[in-house]
Write a structure and sequence with these properties.
By secondary structure, this protein is mainly α. It has one domain. It contains 13 helices and three strands; from the N terminus they run αααβββαααααααααα. A three-stranded antiparallel sheet has the order 1-2-3, sandwiched between helices. Helix 1 runs antiparallel to helix 11, helix 9 packs across helix 11 and helix 12 packs antiparallel against helix 13. The radius of gyration is 21 Å and the shape is globular.
C-alpha cells in the first residue's frame, strides 16, 4: 500500500538520523569488540558484523511494511498477535536452543530469533488496544492490564530471563501512566511488587525456597559489593568499571582497548558493549551515544504526544518505554548502578533478532507520526 505524498512531510528525520547513527556506531563497536576473539578462533573479524547487517536488512524491510499500513488496522489482529506471542514463548520452553543455561532462542539458519523481543511489541499492541477505550483505569481494567503482562513475563522468567521479565513489568506501568491511571494506585501496585520481589530474594537467600535461581541471586547480591566475590560473580562488573574508567576523556581508540582486546571484559560485543564504547572512545564517545539515545527518546515522546488518538499515543509511548528501560538498565549495569541482567543495548548490541525488533518498534513510532494529522484533499 503506497502512502499519499502529503504523509511524508510528517516523517521524523531527527529520529531516523539518530537511529541510523546508533546503528553505525554499533557496527564499528561490534567489529572492535569481537575482532580479537574471532581472529584467534580463525574466523572472519566481520562475522558478527555480517550477522548484524542481515538483521539490519530485515529490519529496514520490516519498517517499510509497518509504515505502509495504517496503525489503526492493527486493532483487529491484536488478540491473534498476543496469543501467537504466548504460543511462541511456551514452545520455546520445549524446543528452544539452550545457551549458557537459558532457553531464549530459536535457530533459523544464520539468525537466532528471540521470542521475548517480539513479545514486547505484542504486549504494546495488546495494552494499547485494552487501554484506549477505558475512561477510568482502575479496578478490573487495571488488574486486567497486569494480568495481560503477567502471562508473558512469567513464561520469560521460566527461560530463565529475569531482566527481560522486569522490562515487561516496567512497560505495563509506563503504559498505564500514559493511559492516565491514578498515580497513587500505580504507586501502591509498585510497592506491592517491590515487597514481593524483596521477599523472593530473602527467601531464596536463606535457602528456604529457591524462587530465584542461585546464579540470579548471586548477581543481585554481588551488585551490592562486587569485591566480595571478585574472581567469580563480581568479575564482570569489576572489569566493566575498569574499562570505563580507563577510557578517560577521548578513549584509547578502536581496537586499542586493553580490557576489551585482552579478553578481560566478558560479553564485550553483547551485554557490556557500552563498556567497550567508554574504553575506546572515552567520555566524549559515551556522551555522544547517550545524546543520540536522548534525541531518539525525545522524538518518540513528541510523536506520542502529537498522536491524533489515544491508541496511537499508547503505541508510540509503549515503544519508547522499551528503549528507555533497556538504556537505563544496560548502561546502569556497566557502571555498577544496576544488577547484571543481560539486557541488550538497542541498535548497538550484537544480535540480529534484537536489531530487527528494535527497528520494528521504530517503524511503529514512525507510523503513528506519519498519521498524526488528518489529510485533507
Amino acid at each position: 500500500m503506497e502512502l499519499p505524498r502529503r504523509y511524508w512531510r510528517y516523517l521524523d528525520w531527527p529520529l531516523i538520523l539518530s537511529v541510523a547513527a546508533l546503528i553505525l556506531i554499533g557496527l564499528i563497536i561490534i567489529y572492535s569488540a569481537s575482532y580479537s576473539q574471532l581472529t584467534q578462533a580463525g574466523l572472519s573479524p566481520f562475522y558478527y558484523v555480517t550477522r548484524q547487517l542481515l538483521g539490519l536488512a530485515l529490519g529496514v524491510a520490516a519498517v517499510a511494511v509497518i509504515i505502509s499500513i495504517d496503525y489503526r488496522a492493527w486493532k483487529r489482529w491484536t488478540r491473534l498477535i498476543y496469543i501467537s506471542s504466548i504460543g511462541m514463548l511456551t514452545l520455546l520452553l520445549v524446543a528452544g536452543t539452550t545457551v549458557f543455561g537459558s532457553q531464549r532462542w530459536f535457530r533459523l539458519g544464520p539468525l537466532s530469533i528471540q521470542p521475548s523481543e517480539l513479545a514486547k511489541l505484542a504486549l504494546v499492541l495488546t495494552l494499547s488496544r485494552h487501554l484506549e477505550m477505558r475512561e477510568n483505569i482502575e479496578g478490573w481494567n487495571l488488574w486486567r492490564a497486569f494480568a495481560l503482562t503477567g502471562v508473558p513475563a512469567a513464561l520469560i522468567m521460566l527461560q530463565p530471563d529475569l531482566g527481560t521479565s522486569a522490562i515487561f513489568v516496567g512497560l505495563a506501568f509506563a503504559m498505564l501512566f500514559f493511559a492516565g491511571a491514578d498515580l497513587r494506585k500505580l504507586g501502591l501496585c509498585a510497592a506491592g511488587l517491590a515487597v514481593a520481589a524483596f521477599t523472593a530474594i530473602y527467601v531464596s537467600w536463606k535457602g528456604w525456597l529457591y524462587i530465584i535461581k542461585p546464579y540470579q541471586l548471586s548477581r543481585l547480591l554481588v551488585f551490592l559489593d562486587p569485591y566480595a566475590d571478585r574472581n567469580n560473580a563480581g568479575w564482570n562488573i569489576i572489569q566493566s568499571i575498569i574499562a570505563i574508567g580507563s577510557g578517560g576523556l577521548t578513549g584509547k581508540g578502536i581496537l586499542s582497548g586493553t580490557q576489551n582486546q585482552l579478553h578481560f571484559l566478558p560479553a564485550n560485543h553483547t551485554d557490556f558493549v557500552f563498556s567497550v564504547i567508554a574504553e575506546e572512545f572515552g567520555f566524549v564517545g559515551s556522551a555522544v551515544v547517550l545524546i543520540l539515545y536522548a534525541v531518539m527518546i525525545w522524538r518518540g515522546l513528541r510523536i506520542a504526544m502529537l498522536a491524533k488518538d489515544t491508541y496511537g499515543m499508547l503505541l508510540a509511548g509503549g515503544c519508547v518505554s522499551i528503549f528507555f528501560f533497556h538504556l537505563i538498565i544496560n548502561v546502569g549495569m556497566t557502571v555498577g548502578m544496576m544488577p547484571i541482567t543481560g539486557l541488550p543495548l538497542p541498535f548497538i548490541t550484537a544480535g540480529g533478532s534484537t536489531l530487527l525488533t528494535s527497528l520494528m518498534a521504530i517503524g511503529v513510532i514512525l507510523n503513528v507520526g506519519l498519521r498524526r494529522q488528518k489529510i485533507m484533499f
